[in-house]
Amino acid sequence: MRLDMNKVILDVTQRIIDRSKETREEYLDAMQEQFRTVPSRSGLQCGNLAHAFAACGPDDKGHLAEDVLPNIGIITAYNDMLSAHKPYEQYPEKIREYARNHNAVAQVAGGVPAMCDGVTQGQVGMELSLFSRDVIAMSSVIGLSHRMFDAVLNLGICDKIVPGLMMGSLRFGYLPTVFVPAGPMPTGISNDEKSQIRQAYAEGKIGRAELLKGESDSYHSPGTCTFYGTANSNQMLMEIMGLQLPGSSFVNPGTPLRDMLTEEAVKAALNLSNKKEFSATMAGMVTEKTIVNAIIGLLATGGSTNHTIHIIAIARAAGIIINWDDFSDLSSVIPLLARVYPNGAADVNHFHAAGGVGFVMRSLLEHGLLHDDVNTILGHGLVNFTKEPYIENGKLSWRDGAKESLNTAIVRPVSDPFKPEGGIKVLKGNIGRSVIKTSAVDNEHLIVEAPAVVFDEQEDFIAAFKRGELNKDLIAVLAFQGPKQNGMPELHQLTPSLTILQKRGYKVALLTDGRMSGASGKVPAAIHMVPEASDGGFIGKIQTGDLIRLDAVTGTLECLTEGVDARPVRMKKAARFGLGRELFTQARRTVSDSEQGASFII
Questions:
Q1: Where are the domains positioned within the chain?
Q2: What pLDDT score does 161 carry?
């Protein structure tokens, strides 16, 4: 028996609908007009068409020339530097074969950049990471602009890539679109062991060789990294939004089930195309309710804080306006149902085996905590997304997913959550507005009142830690890390040192206009601060010694030292050159703030 829909969810959804009325109508009008009037490839001139299928085989040429079979456009983020995207190397060839087996054609429409935050973490290249999302959106639009396609398959997994593909696909929202995952690598060393190795290195107890071995034992093969950061949060979002096949996110690469799910994704795209209904298009699926479901999934699973930026940008691409208050208000009624590293010891393989996304969705639906009145790639409603795939007699089959958790240390039902509230909250006060992820923070650390220690860069913090200068209560303040200043890099390198200080018994927290990502953990971190320092924000006025109070219980963030507001914002010149950063000068000038999606195109 399902309970009635939760009133807070209904109220938040309705205010989003009301807030978005004008922009949503404008978006839908544009998409419906293109759905009705944009001609298929038969409207191309002969010269255009000849160029488009010149490299195809004879059969595909004939089908494309006659315009009698659907053509699937593949947008791929393949490269073999990202372990998560290495499996995509062979996907176009497989997809072309699957398409032919089901009376269709498939072509790679274009490739998009795919940078690895794991490689650029703490490096200058990280300043391009967030901006790469908008570049991906623009790149996917270029690929689809050839007007050759009846449906779209998106091959992407990692941090900025799926949000970028979403934003680009929504500009072609009149086409059916399916996301195709490639799966996580098998489990390596435990996350606790990996964390201990990093902390031991930060304390100087082991050398670089031991650290590199630990990292290599953790990130060891093709497939997505197994912790629940932004990449795997992306996969959960695609499932809960109904844009990716049920149970497909966390099936390991190179397995028979993985290949069968890829073929099934091709069939799903063709089924949607053959319907020729607006409800089967991307624009017909991504609605205000779908966006609310995405936020709910993020909260229920303790997902990446990066999505407090990305979901906003995705929503805006569909004419939907959301803000951090929506996240925070939903968090008050959405319980935390999963403990996956860094919010627990398990990785995504363990989460999947314990019931995974399907079990979470089933429990949320049963308790009126998820909109079921939505269109998906499998039709109307989310009942199919509580099922799981398996192989029976050599064929792909579906069965009901777990109705009870198979490991309550990893995933639980709504009736017995890890925490009664979700993992993300807005902090407000005289410093501005920021986001905090509380799902991994123990209750005793939710309130920190301590003097500020101000740093220009995370390297300065690490150096001070190694000198033994930070053995005290403190709130580390890193301003000038926002999108306008330097592209808003992640500050993940701070985590081991802050964690060590907390374990030593000190009250510690972080305050920044930068990002911490899904890897943020047990230390309270007020992140994504707006206004950022480069916009004249209060955070740029804080000096070492100012008293700061972070209260994640009441949702407040205050500088308690008098007279700070009257100070000028201190100056910090941004580095503009090196590793191509000079090409993004205009992006830094025009980018919106974090609560508006940190985008220079939406």
A1: 21-186+221-321, 424-596
A2: 98
